Sequence to fold (108 residues):
Amino acid sequence: MNLDPREIQLSIAIILVMFGVMFLVAGMLKLLARDILQSARKIATQSARISTSKRITEDLTRLTQSTAQLSDSINELVRTSAGVGAFLILTGILFIASAYFITVSIPA
Fold:
């Protein structure tokens, strides 16, 4: 089976477009999955309220430190999730752009 160079270029371009679409969809889902992130934000808000309450006694110092650490961890998780989604979208766009340039370079 002899493959023409045009057929090889076209098949590579099609594969790149499929990967690009998959990365775009994964990035969009990652950015739009705010339901989970909203729950994490509520937990962070509640833990911040606990740590700033003036009614906490000395016996609960460890608890407030733990909730502050939990709040920091959840906030970092939210920021990291958005970064991963943006990276996936950018990678998908690069795949699709490279497929376009491969397709344009196919001789007629």
The longest helix spans residues 61-104. The chain has one domain: 5-104. The two ends are 22 Å apart (CA to CA).
